[in-house]
Amino acid sequence: MASLCSRLNNRIALYTKVQVINELGEKDYQYQQIKTIYAEILPQSGNEKTGQGNTLFSEISHKIIIRANAVKQLSNDMYIVFDNKRYDVKYFQPNYKYHNYIELYCKLVVE
User: Fold this and answer.
1) Could you tell me the pTM of the whole model?
2) H-state helical runs in 1-111
3) Distance between terminal CA atoms of the chain?
4) How far apart are CA 53 and CA 41, in angstroms?
5) Which of 52, 67, 98, 104 is the most exposed place for a label (fewest CB within 10 A)?
6) Residue pLDDT, tens place only, 31-85
7) Over the range 70-100, which residues count as b (16 or more CB within 10 Å of their CB) and which as e?
8) What is the rounded CA–CA span in Å between residue 14 and residue 30?
9) How far, in Å, are 3, 10, 52, 107 from residue 82 at the CA level?
């Protein structure tokens, strides 16, 4: 089995909310890219739901593994862009087998 470091083969962009002052002089928030890092992206689960008017939509979850030292402050308001697809961070936890890695559980956002 290959080591976890060799499996971090996807280059992702990490975005977070940053406080800015808008044209009216008010505090506002915008998303800005803070870092580009390597990660492993694994699909976890998917399900199909029925919405209003008998429309169907799917919700796909992914596990994204990154190095713990790659990002200083993780939060749930971050999102990841990989291959022009957006992944919203739902929650994260340490990888208990490889202690210097973090597992991010994300939801694929289809626009």
Assistant:
1) 0.84
2) none
3) 37
4) 33
5) 52
6) 999 999 999 999 999 888 887 888 887 889 999 999 999 998 899 999 999 999 9
7) bbeebeeebbbebeeebbebeebeebeeeee
8) 14
9) 22, 8, 30, 12
